[in-house]
Specification:
Elements (H helix, E strand, L loop, with lengths): L1 E3 L13 E6 L3 H7 L1 H9 L8 E6 L13 E6 L5 H5 L3 E9 L5 H7 L3 E10 L2 E5 L17 H7 L11 E6 L2
Parallel strand pairs: 1-2, 2-3, 4-5
Antiparallel strand pairs: 5-8, 6-7, 6-8
Length: about 170
């Protein structure tokens, strides 16, 4: 799993065997450098017994020294247009988990390398993946043409008629 813009959110290590965290914030390297503290937090949760945790202090909009077509999951939560800069690191058939913040869900929706395959809904703190009625999602509240240029200009998400917590896109090309 690759998590650009992670800051110090290590919750994915509660679930996944191997996570590569990536952030430019100057406070994040200090947090991840405390490997005993990070392990203690992770060990306090049920999950993998010894997850691989890697931290890279870098800007995801710059070229990254990471293998292409390698990761099974790419996460974009409140971090900007992650999909635009990091898709090459996600394997074909892999999943992009993205929320509508900063326009990245909209960017993925117009990227021919992706196909919407699910949405993540939340009710009373319980999350559920829904793969039905996907054609009713990603419909803007206001009629508008969504373009990469517009998303770059506004750096904002699109207001959709339905607003799940996040979207799941599969990389198809």
């Amino acid at each position: 799993m690759l998590y650009p813009g992670s800051y110090v959110d290590i919750a994915p290590s509660f679930v996944f065997d191997s996570v590569t965290y990536l952030d430019i914030d100057t406070r994040a390297p200090r947090f991840f450098a405390d490997t005993n503290g990070v392990r203690e937090i992770v060990d306090d949760h049920e999950g993998p017994s010894d997850p691989g945790i890697t931290f890279i202090h870098a800007d995801y909009t710059s070229p990254l020294d990471l293998p292409e077509d390698h990761f099974d999951l790419l996460v974009s939560l409140y971090a900007g247009l992650v999909s635009e800069h990091c898709t090459q690191h996600l394997r074909v058939g892999g999943t992009l988990l993205v929320n509508p913040s900063h326009g990245d869900a909209a960017m993925a929706s117009i990227d021919p390398r992706y196909e919407l395959t699910g949405v993540v809904t939340s009710r009373d703190g319980n999350y559920k993946i829904d793969t039905t009625g996907l054609n009713t999602h990603l419909i803007p509240r206001k009629p508008q043409t969504i373009t990469a240029a517009r998303l770059h200009e506004t750096c904002r998400g699109i207001g959709y008629i339905k607003s799940p917590f996040a979207y799941l896109f599969t990389r198809i090309a």
